[in-house]
Every structure is written in C-alpha cells, then in structure tokens.
Amino acid sequence: MNFETSKTLGGVGAILMFIGVIPFFAYSMVISLIGLILLLIAMYSLANYYQESGIFNNALYGVITAIVGGIATVAVVFIALVDFLSALGFSFADMAYWSTEFTQMDWTAVGFSIIGDFVAYILLALVVLFVFVIITAILLRKSLGLLSTKTGVGLFGTTGLLILIGAVLTIIVVGLLLIWIATLILAIAFFQMKPQQSQPAMSAAAPA
Fold it and tell me: Where are the domains of the chain?
C-alpha cells in the first residue's frame, strides 16, 4: 500500500468515526467500526512506511485494551444485576412474570444492604471502565506521538493530548466531547501529511 492510499484511509477512517458518534445517522456503530478498521489499516501501513512499529503496535494495543475494558465492565454490571435480582427473590425461570412482580413489590421494604451491594457493584464497574479508558488513551497518545514525530504534523500530537485529557474527564460530558473533537482533528492531521523527501546525494569532492 502506497503513502497516498494510507493517508486517505486514515483520513476517511477518522471522519467515519467522527460521524459514527452522531446518533442521527442510522447504523452509527457500523460506521464507527468501519472507520476504526480503516484507521488501523492506515496505521499499519504508515508504521511500515516510516519503519516505526510503535505507531501501529500502540494503536492496536489501545484498541484491544478498550475492548477488554468494555467486556470487563459489562461483566461486572451483569453480575451486579444477577445478584440484585436474586436478592430481591426474582427467579430467572419466571421472567415472564417480572413486570407484574416489579409493580407489586414494596420497595420500601427492600433492605439497605441489598441496595448498597448493587451500588457498590456499579461503582466498581465505573472504576474498571475508567482505568481501561485511561490506559487506552495513553497507548493511543504514544502511537500518535510517534506519528507526529515521523511526519512532522503537530496535529497528531494535539489529537493524542486531547484524547488523554478527554479520557481523564470522561466522568463529565466535556471529556466525551473532547474525544469526539479529537477524531475530527485526527482526520485533518492525516490529510496534512506529506511523503518523505528523498535525501539528495552528496556531491563528489572537487579535485585539489
């Protein structure tokens, strides 16, 4: 894959991820996934072009970390729900009657320990998610930092910094907004890239 193709794939991939976050588009998750795949392909090609494996490796590890973090968070939340429902006396064999049982339940009689355990599980899930988000952001910043150094495009470094700041601020809406804006800046950075210039051959020394 040549440089121009890698550059285009990276830019288009970042744009698709930017668009995929907008809920007004149908199949938003599919659009984001396609964008992510195109980005990884571009990073792999550029890592070979600049002979710097860290560009792709850190990006790949970041994506894997994000996936593992998402699975771990969902697992904790699932365990929390199962434990909470079991403590309330709900049986999975009678799921068809849950709506009736929920409406008839006296929630004032539910023990504080049951609610406390459920809240503790949810807080644990949020902590797990936060830790994995930070690790993912650090890895992505390393990848984009290397790409910024190799290409001379400072916007890659800016993108990495925004992603890291956004990850730290994920507890508020501003953090997610920063990460979303970072994907658009990443697209601009890709389209600003220029191929490496071949070094001119040294002229032969003039005879004395």
Answer: 3-101+111-191
- Which position has the token pair 């150094």? 149
Q: How far apart are CA 8 and CA 151, in angstroms?
A: 15
Distance CA 101, CA 85 (A): 11
Q: What are the DSSP E strand ranges found in the chain?
A: none
Instruction: Determine the Cα angle at 173 with ends 160 and 66, to 5°.
Output: 50
Residues near 201 by beta carbon (within 8 Å), at least 6 away in sequence: none
Q: How far apart are the first and last CA of the chain?
A: 47
pTM (2 decimals)? 0.82
16-to-30, 31, 34, 36, 83 alpha-carbon distances in Å = 10, 6, 7, 8, 39
Position 1 scores a pLDDT of: 78
Buried/exposed 91-103: b ≥16 CB within 10 Å, e otherwise? eeeeeeeeeeeee
